[in-house]
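User: Predict the full complex structure for these chains.
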Amino acid sequence: MGNAPDPPAPFPLPSHPGGGDSPLPPRGGGARGGRSRRGLSDRQITNLFLLPTLLLLIAMNLFPLFWSLYLSFCDYHADRNQPAQWIGTANYAALLASPEKWRYFTQTATFVLLAVSIEFVAGFGLALLFHRKFRAQGLLTTLILLPMMLSPVVVGLFWQLIFDPKRGIFNYLLGLGSTVWLQDPGRAMLSLVLIDAWMWSPFVMLIALAGLSAVPEYLYEAAAVDRASAWFRFRYITLPMVAPLLLIALIFRTMDAFKVFDLVWATTSGGPSDLTETVSTSLYRIAFESFDTGQACAFGYIILVVIIALTNLYLRFMARVKGEA
Amino acid sequence: MGVENRPPGWQAERIKAVLGITTIVVVTVIYLIPVFWIVLTSFKQWDDVQAVPPRFFFAPTLENYSYLPVNRVFDQSGSRVVGESGFFQKIGNSAVIGLVSTFFAVGLGLLSAYAFSRFRVKGKSDMLFFILSTRMMPPVVVVIPIYLMYNFLGLRDTHLGMIVLYTVFNLSFAVWLLKGFVDEIPREYEDAALVDGYTRFQAFCKVVAPQAVTGIAATAVFCLITAWNEFAFALILTDQRAITAPPFIVSRLGAAGTDWGQIAASTVVFVLPIAIFTFLMRNHLLRGITFGAIKK
Amino acid sequence: MKKRAMRLAVVWAALLSLAGCSKPADPGAPTSGAATPTSAAAGGTLNIVWAQWDPAKYLQQLVNDYTKETGVTVKVHEIPWPQFQQKVFVSLSAHQDTYDIIVGDSQWLGRASENGHYVELTDWMKEKLDLDSFYAPALEGYGEYPKGSKKYWAVPCEADATGFCYRKDLFEDPNEKAAFKAKYGRDLAVPKTWQELYEIAEFFNRPDRNLYGVALFLGKAYDSVTMGFQQVMWCYGGSYGDPQTFQVEGLLNGPESVTALDFYSRLARFTPPGSLDFYFERCLAAYQNGLVAMAMNYFAFFPGLTNQETNPRFYDKTGYFVSPAGPKGHFVSLGGQGMSISAYSKQQEQAKQFLEWFAKEEVQRKWAELGGYTCNKKILESETFRTATPFNAAFADSLPLVRDFWAVPEYNQLLDSCQKHWNAAVAGIEEPKAALDATAKEHAAIFQKAGRAKQATAGSGRS
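Assistant: Here is the predicted structure of the three-chain assembly.
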């Protein structure tokens, strides 16, 4: 049994790491070697592998999406025993004309920008730090993933205690006296960003770590032979291989950060006043306090459109990264 | 091995290694201070929890843990127990629902990721975008229609209902992340296997899947965490039979105020299974992709 | 094969969505056996839903007696406070029979009754219960809607009001008393007016010694700052508006209200740092930590203060007083809930029997003993009750003074508006006049949209 054969000759530098998105066309029965194979054809495999996923997603999402789309054009309150009344784009108009809602979008965008940037840098940094062989590697990695394993509501609750000016260890350990964090109009948003970054940097770290592990050793060896600098190694070997995975992590973190609710609701409730109100907390109020279901659906679709636009930007960037790498 | 056999500059290497590990340990410890605080709180008595300034040294107690299975209320004279809390039954629900939904999300996700990665599929990028978009709508908007849907189908307050829900929640992430990992596996290995007479399916099982273990492990961990801690739908869609732990944990509000000790204790107990699961997966999570032999 | 499967999927999904699309007009699809057990056998089960807190647990203890007497199992379901409203109204909107009895907030009465979610109990209550046994303000606050119409939708269950606890050791310390007398020219005593409370708070506000004057409801969450401030507003002569004409302008933002909000904001300076999100638990914690000389809170949370385990430093040094009066009146914020019957319950008769049992005097007596706050007049006025705990007397004295927020169906939006602006006012982000003007404008718009605002009459009365 041959062990560790020579790495396949073709690539000194990975151009298409796995062949990613330039796939082979599905094959029918004829094999390369000329022998006919038993087993499923590529076409059948494609169907078999894709169908359950798509069916499940469609089944679960179709009714909610159509229901809420229809109601977004209606005057409808779920808690009243009255039928929905078609009012056209009135819900959308009211939302888009509200300066408050625009402010909540900006506040949410600020949160997303700050939180995701910190998570990216911290997560990737942690991954680089942890990417070496050392004793108790498994244990330490599991430990540093703990923040992510806690429920966001619990994290919010306890960080309230930690940020408490008098009872909390944040001020105590850093010698900051009685500084007010979550209740201070100027610092509340930053405090939320800090909590979110603390909780989700390990998420980016784990994905980045897995991506770093995927970089073949021999590439580094080849670069070392050529006496490439550390920056060169990082920029032309590490980054291109890790980038696709990092971008996936970022897309999902961005989407989730944009929809952030539990964390804000458990800590500031959008306060002080409405300085940390996000689109999701505002949406919650419309949906489950006012029970203005029609307007909530409209708001939801507006948020959806924004997120679609954002992710499109990411995806285009991702395609470019893959293209140039 | 004599000194003269060691490569030049080994001292520098050693120092770098030690420095590296020290940094890792220090970073980890500092990063985990809040978690440490939660664990500490779980052993504190009422007064110690809220102390000003915060207390690191105190007389510990196990009562927060021992009272987990019951409802304890404080009144004028002391405290009394009023019935059971069903905490461990709820953890059981979380376990069943979490593990099964993770299994399906990762399984279906891997299959779809492979198909998207290797084959030309008509409308692929649209399909992929559709899959991504299922995670974009704020949950608040879909709570009511899903509630209605589940009522209609008789899935409300059932384990099956929650399993299906969480599988669907996690599918989009699973497909995308796993596709990212599968993309990084060179096709040459499958092609070689195909040349050697394996069917595509066998090539998938024997060549690709083993190499995607890191990605599978990471995805499984994330999916389980998501399902484990999900709160909003668990609260609305379950009542007695399928109720999971998260809604219960955060709601320890008594006549004397928030029972931080109990919240901390129940959090510690609740996070333990996930931590253990991740720890068991550690070798898979940290495995590099090897360019070793293709096993026959 | 793929095309056919796709087509099948689309058809199935379309069917599903068609089935669902009929829902908006009638969200009340009856459940297909997915709900909780209903009475099939002789015993049966009644399902009560309340918020997750100790009184709900006291209730579960109490209802075990009912089970012993009648064989009917009674289960009290608890939902965490932040999600309580959401879960109950989602269930009601879908016409679920999950809960038979709902122990709802007093503000829900309008919304639940106007939308047909609660069973009207007027005739039944007049016939089966002794309405005089209930404390009149409690009956009105927890059960009547519209106010003054004598229509009832709930049996009062848990009475609650805001009150204050204070550090007796500080107030009775001779040095403190002397210093206070020297500074303010009167004796240090339990404050009877808000101005007196202000002076005491100012006196005890010593940040360098980790002692602050008072803990107040100032927070943005739920209804915190509204519950704290509204009583001050009423005491100074302001009001939410006219309950008949729904005129808001000039009343909610009238000069009395502005004075009151200005006062409350200034009083808030004597609270500990980070108090901008104080609600009942933070006020409790601040007091238990010895951070404040006085703390506002609901009476429902005072039992924990006499408990040595949860208040080890001051459990025997704590006194309680009725929320103070203002220049134009004496009012106290109403808390508490009443028991209503869900219109979708399949056991409405059994629920009524339970409510009848609950209202009996001996049951109310036991309810009070277990820790619940009864609304029974005779028990409230009895010496036994008043002396049973250090705070019961203050509670009994507070009840005649209670007043509530709007109970109209739009109360949530009204509340949101108050929360946002009044939290801004006490935070110093908005000026009191501007905050009240903004609130009044939003309230007027809400009433307009709900079709309640009639032609404003000059010189309308107050709510």
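The two ends of chain B are 38 Å apart (CA to CA).
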